[in-house]
Structures are given as structure tokens and as C-alpha cells.
């Protein structure tokens, strides 16, 4: 096993009526947290399942450190994964849940306590799973994934339902794992979550790749279309002046002008030139989640 890089190449999964994953290719680098992002039903879980050899691809390959999961000599110590955070016996304590996994994987019992410590669950070690909050369940899932001290971590929606404090903890935890040189792949359907957690992002919709790159770059490319909201009694006059300056002007339902293509200072200057009185001049950055939905929705058919 070399570096823990995940390479997905031409991966496809055709269910009876649904092409859940469609010729998907991307790379996940070690030493970074990569967000795997897509709306519900985009094919994230199916992709992760194929990477982990739980679903057989219709076409294409997925490798981890150059090998398919099925060919890894010691998969549990190479890859840790959670596909469902809340899967544990209700009456069992957190520690016992982990010990059962240790026993099955041939790991020493003490490893259970080590990973509980790692995820900050030591105080709750003796509590029964049924009393765990969602955040604690997520942490326990991560603890289980860490049992084999894996080089690669694959987490399906680990931040789902976490409060801001939980997300902050998750960020620190995942960053730390990446800084140790591990490969960390986390899925989510929320861009805002990935902005907080990930270095890189792979966006899919309807089983296909939409964007891939550093999260700041991808988000930057999505938020360029700022719009300025302008209210003036001389709407017609200002519209003419702005259009001549290369702007696109639409009128909102409330009569305000919605201007794209020029920034607020240029609009102020245009208003001054034609002596238009300004009652409102507000730059509206598009809500990223909204842009993300637009970016992905166009691709989604009924699935
Ligand atoms: N075993 C299966 N048989 C038939 N269709 C399936 C099966 N598993 C998934 N699908 C379909 O494949 C598509 C992709 O599902 P998948 O669970 O991979 O998406 P996802 O991005 O993980 O979504 P979510 O965030 O809702 O879990 C969906 O349309 C789903 O209904």
C-alpha cells in the first residue's frame, strides 16, 4: 500500500431503472480533507459503497493506494469507514460496542479506550448507546472507523445533524487526521458544511461530476455573480445610463432595480451623472447554498 490516494475512474452503477453513478472520475489526495458533495440522491453513498467494495460497479474502478479495496492485504487497518453513524446495539455501552468490533477485527481491547479518548467520549464510555445524543453517535461512529488506525478515512455524512460546536470539533478532528498525512473523504449534501470542513471538494449531481478542486476556488467561482439592488424614483433614467455602461438591469417585483455586471460604486457614479436620487443601494451576494442547488439541480432528472 503506497500513499492512500483514492482514484475513482469511470465508475458507473446502473440499478434497474436508475443510473445511480454515471462515468464518475475523481481523485482524493492524502494529507487533505476532501468533501464529497451532492444533493440527496446524487449518488454519494453508492460511490462510497463501490470504493469500499460493498456494491459491485457496472463499469469503472476505484482504487485506494493503487489497489482495489478487495485486493488490500489488510483492509481494516488501511481504510476506516462509517456509512451509517447510528448503527449500534441500543443496550450496549459505547465501550462495549467498540470492543465487539475489536474482537471481530483481531484488535486488542484497549484500542476501544484509545479511540474513545481520541473522539472525546471517555466520560461517556460506560453509557448505553440508546442514551447517546446524535453528536455522540457521530463521534462513536468515527471512533469505530479509527480502531484500525487507518491511513484512509471515509465518512458518509458525518456532520449530519451536528450543532455548531459539534461541527467545530469535527473540523479540528478531521484537519488533525489530514495533517498526519491521512486521506480523509467526507460526504455531505450541504455546501456550507463543506466550506467549514474541507480543503478540497468533489461535487456530483445525478451521478456525474459537476466540479472538483480546492473548496475556496470552487466557492469563489460560484459567488462571482453578485447583484446590486437599487431603488430610485428615476428608475428609467438610471436604467438607461447603467445599460450604456454595460450593466444588465431587471426590475424586481417590488419595483427595485436588480443590477448585474457592475459594482455598487459604478452605479453610484452613474446615478450622480444623471442626477438620480438613490434610496437604496445594496450589494447582494448570492446565497451559496442556492447557487449550489442551481448548479446541481439542472443536472438532476427524476431519479
Ligand atoms: N440498491 C438500490 N437499488 C435501486 N436504486 C438504488 C439503490 N441504491 C441507491 N439507489 C438509487 O440511486 C440513486 C443514488 O442514491 P445514493 O444513495 O447513492 O445517493 P446519495 O447522494 O447518497 O443520496 P442521500 O444523500 O440521499 O443518501 C438514488 O436515486 C437512489 O434511489
TrEMBL record:
ABC transporter domain mapped to chain residues: 6-231
PROSITE patterns tied to this protein: ABC_TRANSPORTER_1, ABC_TRANSPORTER_2
Record bears the keyword Phosphoprotein: no
Any one GO molecular-function label of the UniProt entry: ATP binding
Hydrolase in keyword set: no
Keywords of the record: ATP-binding, Nucleotide-binding, Transport
InterPro entries tied to this protein: AAA+_ATPase, ABC_transporter-like_ATP-bd, ABC_transporter-like_CS, P-loop_NTPase
PANTHER family membership: ABC TRANSPORTER, ATP-BINDING PROTEIN
Family of this protein: Belongs to the ABC transporter superfamily.
Protein name: ABC transporter ATP-binding protein
Organism: Planosporangium thailandense
